[in-house]
Amino acid sequence: MDGEGDVGFDVLVPCPHDDECTGRAWVPAYSVTCLFRALNGDLDDDEDIVCTVHGGFDNVDQEADDHALHALHETARSV
Question: Could you tell me the pTM of the whole model?
Answer without folding.
Answer: 0.56
